[in-house]
């Protein structure tokens, strides 16, 4: 029995959640649902850290796969049931945190209790409408989605319990989406989450669970983009590798990707090398990945159009601006999304090679215009572009 | 077979049957034994960008005036440290240039001189430019005021009663001498700011290339280019007049540009609108102003009327033909701020701001001088040459109005003296008999020279082309020289400057003269030795543009960027290789042209 561990007092937690609700629900948000592309930063406590970061990327015009968050309010509805609250608190009260096996057992029992609790009808309705909306946006029935936990804590806006909640991939159809939503809710009580909160002494009050529902990407083509020219470090260009299908063919080295240089500022493709691409990795209907031979006509065809390349370059540039340093971006062209909205960003991380270099002030810099003009006139200049 | 030098100017096989061609040009502009060693040791290139046709004596005269004026500013006024003048010759009727560098050991001495002199201009640029505009307008007004009309039977009474004591004959000779001085004056002004403007631009250019090694030239040009430029005004005024014709209900009057009759109040109202902008804006040449045959809009009205007809059709089809000034400005600001953001440090951003600031101060001059001198002043100059030619033909000194073109300006003094003296005495003149056969012989020689293909270059090229103005003004680089010599790496492809971005495919049409511009069909690709700003109205209907010669600031490059038409300039061989009717692909981003079939 743990005297120090604060016990969840849901009666106390609920009004707090309500006050969020009153404040946050805006015209752009239906009850319980926040679409990523309409996310506003003040909604973060309602959608949790993971959903907030996806919404933030959308706001910065870095198009992640489309989707929505089911807010913490939806999850909070279940705590209206006094029996459920008593059962959960009862299980937590008898927990000896030092006993690992007991920790796992209590977690399983709490999770089982939550996962057998009927999802409130209002939540079923909201989820159903939103999921249907997502399917029709993508023009795809029973659209495969990822269902993700996205926890939030009133006192700890950024302690998103990273990696301590569950993510479920390739979920198709409304009943499975509802079922996995409830599993996300219950993931508030994974053994690790319980132990973590205990160790950190965090109050359980105000802890909420939002759920993200996001389209699984099915790429026609995919690749990586560096926000600089890797041959000379020129930051006005984006280098893009691209190949048909999923990124696996390129990662495994089975295919030499098409290679492009795009001018970031002028939005022009300045260099293109199209290679022969024999195989691609594609998704089967069930969400498995298969390797297929590329038909002859498509092998030597550019895997991306100029318009797509420019869209990739622009989103890479936006990631670079957003994060404030050169980026290495994974992107994909989705098969189901409409043209113009089908270029997606999967991941962005800092570029490491050129970013490490010490930047020297430019030799032709300086602010004495006459001295600079003299040196320009006297030292040879090569005018013809060498791209 | 690749070699490392071009043929000597003394070994060139000219066209047949042109003996005596040298007489068309003064000795100072000819290759010859007196300077053989000097001339043989130099590198000369044919300036087909500005002078692509065989020169008549008068064309050659303005060529000489222009090059001497350019040279004088480099060498004697501003002491450009590494560059003296650009030497010039005429060989078999064609204009050859050779940049003259400064002895490296003397460059250092010139630096403080340059800094003081050029520094004064950079420091007082806007004031000096305002004064420049006044000076140039005054020069043009004085040329316009010159009177080359025939000498009268009797002087006006006022000449006597006013106690003037000088007559029309004296005034004619004086006017002719003034004319030659005023032309030189206009060309001195042409280069008063130009080379300094290019120097400031080059400084910004070099900085950008160091910061962004792969930055396209046009990215730099777009940051500096002005939005409202005088060179665009004539074309903009045509759009206004097209709109006016529609509003007045007389749009159909322009259906046949050769035959436009404007009657009634509406016609008069339209004519008044034309008159209000004709001077100066329609002193606009269809060529580059350097040739006697260039057509001037205000004189050859079928040319602007044809463009007005095309604009009327576009307006009637619901197209918006106005220049989106705000969008163009916003795009320029966007490009600047993006490049600026990408720089590595605040120090670099400060340098960028300073250099871009100076480039933008100087650039209005670089962009606008062309309208004031090549278009406006030269329109008036050529009109005066035609007036004088007509007067001499009318009074029997020469047989035809255009015979004057085949008499050198220094020789014209002899004709005018003959005219004046025998007008004074009231006796027969000798000029028709003396000059008639000479003019006919020269006319025939000129026709043969016109059919000849001159070599691209002569003599020994330098290891590396480093002379900044050669690169900037003519787009001549070590690479282009190598390709002329046949030592370039791209054997099959046509390559040039990526002058205006985008890729387009279509049917090529070769255009060698302003008269052929009208043959361009909607959606064709214009292929020309060089284009002129006044061709601007056809740019909305072409799909792409390819030129043989032209640097990053050539007219074709500027106009194509303005109209969003992909362009490759400075291909060297474009018009030799491409035929009218070929399907070609123009990659204005990569600087390549491919013949598809």
Account of the protein in words:
- The complex is a heterodimer of chains A (387) and B (597).
- Chain A has 387 residues and is α+β, with helices and mostly antiparallel strands.
- Chain A has 2 domains: 10-215, Dna Ligase, domain 1 (2-Layer Sandwich); 219-355, ATP-grasp fold, B domain (D-amino Acid Aminotransferase, Chain A, domain 1), CATH 3.30.470.20.
- Chain A has 13 helices and 13 strands.
- Chain A has helices at 10-24, 44-59, 72-76, 82-93, 100-115, 121-138, 174-186, 191-200, 248-251, 296-299, 306-323, 353-356, 369-378, and strands at residues 33-35, 67-70, 145-153, 167-171, 207-215, 219-226, 237-244, 258-263, 268-273, 279-283, 289-293, 327-334, 343-350.
- In chain A, strands 9-8-7-6-12-13 form a 6-stranded antiparallel sheet, with helices on one face. In chain A, strands 1-2-5-3-4 form a 5-stranded antiparallel sheet. A two-stranded antiparallel sheet of chain A has the order 10-11.
- In chain A, α5 (100-115) packs antiparallel against α7 (174-186).
- Chain A is globular, with a radius of gyration of 25 Å.
- Chain B has 597 residues and is of the alpha+beta class.
- Among the domains of chain B are: 125-192 and 370-450; 492-595, Phosphohistidine domain (Glucose Oxidase, domain 1, 3-Layer(bba) Sandwich), CATH 3.50.30.10.
- In chain B, 48% of the residues are buried.
- At the A-B interface, β9 and α13 of A face α3, α7, α8, α12 and α13 of B.
Q: Which helices and strands, and how do they pair?
A:
The complex is a heterodimer of chains A (387) and B (597).
Chain A: H1 10-24, E1 33-35, H2 44-59, E2 67-70, H3 72-76, H4 82-93, H5 100-115, H6 121-138, E3 145-153, E4 167-171, H7 174-186, H8 191-200, E5 207-215, E6 219-226, E7 237-244, H9 248-251, E8 258-263, E9 268-273, E10 279-283, E11 289-293, H10 296-299, H11 306-323, E12 327-334, E13 343-350, H12 353-356, H13 369-378
Antiparallel strand pairs in A: 1-2, 2-5, 3-4, 3-5, 6-7, 6-12, 7-8, 8-9, 10-11, 12-13
Chain B: H1 36-40, E1 43-46, H2 57-77, E2 83-91, E3 94-101, H3 104-123, H4 125-145, H5 157-161, H6 168-190, H7 194-211, H8 217-224, H9 233-247, H10 264-281, H11 302-316, H12 325-342, H13 346-394, H14 409-425, H15 431-450, E4 457-459, H16 468-474, H17 478-484, E5 494-495, E6 497-500, E7 503-510, E8 525-528, E9 544-547, H18 555-563, E10 567-569, H19 574-577, E11 583-587, E12 592-595
Parallel strand pairs in B: 7-8, 8-9, 9-10
Antiparallel strand pairs in B: 1-3, 1-4, 2-3, 5-12, 6-10, 7-11, 11-12
Helix pairs in contact in B: 2-6, 4-6, 4-13, 6-13, 6-14, 7-8, 7-13, 8-12, 9-10, 9-11
């Amino acid at each position: 029995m743990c005297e120090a561990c604060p016990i969840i007092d849901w009666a106390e937690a609920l009004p707090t959640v309500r006050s969020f609700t009153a404040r946050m629900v805006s015209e752009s948000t239906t009850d319980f649902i926040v679409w990523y592309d309409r996310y506003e930063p003040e909604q973060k406590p309602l959608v949790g850290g993971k959903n907030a970061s996806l919404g933030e990327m959308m706001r910065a015009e870095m198009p992640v796969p489309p989707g929505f968050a089911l807010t913490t309010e939806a999850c909070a509805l279940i705590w209206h049931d006094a029996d459920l609250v008593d059962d959960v608190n009862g299980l937590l009260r008898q927990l000896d945190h030092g006993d690992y096996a007991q920790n796992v057992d209590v977690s399983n029992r709490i999770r089982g209790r939550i996962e057998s609790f009927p999802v409130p009808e209002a939540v079923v309705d909201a989820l159903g409408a939103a999921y249907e909306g997502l399917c029709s946006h993508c023009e795809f029935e029973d659209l495969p989605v990822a269902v993700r936990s996205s926890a939030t804590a009133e006192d700890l806006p950024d302690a998103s319990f990273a990696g301590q909640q569950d993510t479920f991939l390739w979920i198709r159809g409304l009943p499975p989406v509802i079922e996995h939503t409830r599993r996300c809710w219950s993931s508030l009580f994974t053994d690790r989450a319980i132990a973590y909160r205990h160790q950190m002494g965090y109050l359980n009050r105000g802890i909420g669970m939002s759920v993200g529902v996001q389209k699984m990407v099915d790429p026609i083509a995919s690749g990586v983009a560096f926000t600089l020219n890797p041959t000379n470090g020129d930051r006005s260009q984006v280098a893009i590798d691209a190949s048909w299908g999923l990124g696996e063919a390129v990662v495994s080295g089975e295919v030499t990707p098409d290679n492009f240089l795009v001018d970031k500022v002028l939005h022009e493709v300045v260099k293109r090398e199209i290679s022969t691409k024999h195989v691609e990795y594609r998704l089967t209907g069930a969400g498995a990945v298969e390797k297929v031979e590329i038909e002859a006509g498509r092998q030597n065809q550019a895997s991306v159009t100029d318009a797509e390349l420019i869209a990739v370059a622009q989103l890479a540039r936006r990631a670079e601006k957003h994060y404030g340093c050169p980026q290495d971006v994974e992107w994909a062209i989705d098969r189901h999304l409409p043209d113009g909205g089908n270029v997606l960003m999967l991941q962005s991380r800092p570029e490491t090679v050129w970013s490490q270099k010490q930047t020297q002030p430019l030799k032709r810099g300086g602010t004495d215009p006459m001295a600079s003009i003299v040196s320009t006139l006297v030292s040879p200049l090569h005018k013809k572009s060498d791209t | 077979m690749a070699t490392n030098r071009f043929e000597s100017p003394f070994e060139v096989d000219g066209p047949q049957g042109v003996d005596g061609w040298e007489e068309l040009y003064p000795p100072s502009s000819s290759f010859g034994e007196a300077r053989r060693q000097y001339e043989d040791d130099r590198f000369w290139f044919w300036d087909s960008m500005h002078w692509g046709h065989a020169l008549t004596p008068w064309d050659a005269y303005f060529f000489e005036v222009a090059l001497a004026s350019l040279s004088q500013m480099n060498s004697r006024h501003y002491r450009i440290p590494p560059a003296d003048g650009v030497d010039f010759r005429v060989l078999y009727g064609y204009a050859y240039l050779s940049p003259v560098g400064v002895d490296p050991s003397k460059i250092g001495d010139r630096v403080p001189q340059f800094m003081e002199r050029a520094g004064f201009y950079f420091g007082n640029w806007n004031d000096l430019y305002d004064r420049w505009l006044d000076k140039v307008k005054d020069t043009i007004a004085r040329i316009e005021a010159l009177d080359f009309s025939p000498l009268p039977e009797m002087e006006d009474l006022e000449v006597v009663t006013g106690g003037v004591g000088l007559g029309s004959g004296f005034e004619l000779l004086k006017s002719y001498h003034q004319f030659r001085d005023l032309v030189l004056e206009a060309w001195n002004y042409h280069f008063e700011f130009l080379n300094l403007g290019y120097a400031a631009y080059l400084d910004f250019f070099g900085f950008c290339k160091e910061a962004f090694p792969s930055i396209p030239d046009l990215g730099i040009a777009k940051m500096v280019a002005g939005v409202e430029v005088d060179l665009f005004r004539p074309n903009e005024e045509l759009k206004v007049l097209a709109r006016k014709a529609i509003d007045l209900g007389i749009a159909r009057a322009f259906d046949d540009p050769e035959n436009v009759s404007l009657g009634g109040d509406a016609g008069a109202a339209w004519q008044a609108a034309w008159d209000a902008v004709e001077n100066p804006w329609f002193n606009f040449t269809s060529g580059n102003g350097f040739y006697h045959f260039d057509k001037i809009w205000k004189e050859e009205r079928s040319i602007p009327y044809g463009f007005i007809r095309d604009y009327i059709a576009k307006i009637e089809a619901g197209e918006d033909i106005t220049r989106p000034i705000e969008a163009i400005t916003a795009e320029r600001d966007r490009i600047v701020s993006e490049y600026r953001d990408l720089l590595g440090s605040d120090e670099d951003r400060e340098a960028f701001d300073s250099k871009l600031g100076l480039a933008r101060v100087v650039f209005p001059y670089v962009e606008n001088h062309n309208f004031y001198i090549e278009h406006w002043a030269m329109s008036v100059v050529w009109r005066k040459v035609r007036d004088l030619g007509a007067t001499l033909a009318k009074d029997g000194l020469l047989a035809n109005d255009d015979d004057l073109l085949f008499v050198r300006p220094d020789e014209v003094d002899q004709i005018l003296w003959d005219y004046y003296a025998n007008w004074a005495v009231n006796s027969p003149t000798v000029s028709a008999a003396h000059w008639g056969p000479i003019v006919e012989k020269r006319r025939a020689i000129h026709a043969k020279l016109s059919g000849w293909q001159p070599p691209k270059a002569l003599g020994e090229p330098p290891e590396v082309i480093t002379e900044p103005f050669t690169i900037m003004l003519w787009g001549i680089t070590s690479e282009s020289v190598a390709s002329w010599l046949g030592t370039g790496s791209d054997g099959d492809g046509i390559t040039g400057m990526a002058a205006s971005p985008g890729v387009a495919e279509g049917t090529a049409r070769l255009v060698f003269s302003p008269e052929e511009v009208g043959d361009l069909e909607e959606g064709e690709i214009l292929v020309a030795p060089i284009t002129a700003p006044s061709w601007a109205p056809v740019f909305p209907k072409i799909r792409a543009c390819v030129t043989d010669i032209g640097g990053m600031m050539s007219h074709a490059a500027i106009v194509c960027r303005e109209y969003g038409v992909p362009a490759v300039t400075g291909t060297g061989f474009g018009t030799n290789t491409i035929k009218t009717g070929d399907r070609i692909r123009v990659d204005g981003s990569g600087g390549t042209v491919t013949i598809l079939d």
